[in-house]
Amino acid sequence: MDVWDSVIQVLSVYFTMLALIVVILVVSFHGASPREEDFPYHILLDPEGKLELSWNVSYPKQEVCFQLLVKEMHFGLVFGMSDRGDFENADLVVLWSDGYKSYFGDAWSDGYGHVQPDHQQDYQLLEAHKSSEGFYLTFKRPFNTCDVHDYQIEDGTVHLIYGILAKPVKSLMMLNLSLSGTGIQRVQLLKPNISIPKLPPNVMTMEVRSPSVTIPGQETTYWCYITELPKNMPKHHIIMYEAAITPGNEALVHHMEVFQCAPQFDSIPNYNGPCDSKMKPQRLNYCRHVLAAWAMGAKAFYYPEEAGLAFGGPSSSRFLRLEVHYHNPLLIKGNRVDSSGIRLYYTSHLRKYDGGIMELGLVYTPVMAIPPQEENFELTGYCTAKCTETALPQGGMHIFASQLHTHLTGIAVRTVIVRESQEVEIINVDNHFSAHFQVGCMLICSTIGLLNTILTTCKYNTMDREKATVGGFGIMEEMCVNYVHYYPHTELELCKSAVDNGYLQKYFAFINRLHDDETCHCPRDSVTEQFAAISWDSFSKQVLRALYDTAPISMHCNQSSAIRFPVSRDKTCAGRNIQSPSVPAHFIELQI
Fold first, then answer.
1. Name one GO cellular component term (predicted).
2. Which of 405, 407, 432, 485 is the catalytic position?
3. Residue 157, pLDDT above cutoff 70
4. CB atoms within 10 A of CB 24
5. 405 is catalytic
């Protein structure tokens, strides 16, 4: 018997001991369902609603307690986490049966998806029992286990993976051959440790719902619906909102947002249909002011007691756009009608401060682009001290919530406060960001002073693309945005940057000469066309990266009326020396 056989034998004995615990629990406890207050967060993992996850978070103990409800248990299940929702290189907890005994244990998968027992057992079994609702399995795990095979649970998006075992499993090593009904779900496991304000007695409610939509039989659908507030509605404050989901569709409604349209339009065409339809009126693109956002697993969103988000009144558009993302991986069609939406709680008793929503990050422009075949390409948008000094009130502004946003290639987003060239505070970070899970989250309040610079950095993966991905509004283009909720309201609604186009044109000229390209890619060609014409190699990518890190930027410091503050037209390098990566010597010598 070699060393590995001995290890397997020891692990087998260990899992057998665990199995006895599970069997005893299953036989001994047929109790009532757990109390909801013990597990305040819930999500359906699979589209059919057969597997439900509940959890709670203990910050003092730095651990998460999970509870799985399997409504139809067969021969076990797999549950776990991975960086992007893959079954390869995943951190797993497994309950399986060989047809005679049941086993529970901590495991992991390698780069080929082969499951292995983990020598460090960090998932602690707490309880397992049957009830009239199904089979309950309760276990816990620390945020950070210091195990190379374990996922570190942190703030932001967590990609959960699951699988139902449809037949007996003789050996853990054969587990991947027995999976059926596998899937992925995204949640925010860690919730901010913030006290919930009490609602005042005079609160009113309004539901913004889709009108009996038949959910299309395709995996991903974004559905848009235009509605409007009552005419001559006076100013109110939104102080809370929550999801209002049609019963039975909890597993299909992935996330929702309510936008207010631009106030300069007297009318917005009625529309009820797919957001990407050619029949969608162009004017709907001007309905981008976020009022509310929800995603699976999110609880109600509360404003601080001293602030509320204004809507209604003469300076506010009465038109709202509801956008619902349906995630339908089983392609269910024809018989699922949905009227989900968001329930707004609002009051006519105005609070001390109007809240505001400000855009941080990059301007929607093709001058900011990601080369193809890149795994981790970073772009940074700046809100410089010149803008904050000019536009913010004397006491600064207080950020209490944040919603990060990119399109399909975004994989991480980070916003930080910088003072005197030093990073002093993280506003929000999501190292496992997904464009398919974008939800606002309440934060412990951050204060932005008058001389602060705010950096928003996005990482992108374009390994599946052959051409450059440019910035823009289209879903195949990219964005880098953080919508921050703050108070008191100011006229500063957008604080973003982009590289100076003149320096970008020098880059195009140099790369074309380097590649002996005789074609005249003149300034009359669009920036998108110029990026599309580049023959990408490691050097052209490196020079572009260096350009973005060091070239002057054009600041967009915009008022809510879309008029720029005076600093906006400055071309400045302010803040660009903040822990900038070293620039290749050849880039400096080229002087482009």
1. chromaffin granule lumen
2. 405
3. yes
4. 11
5. yes
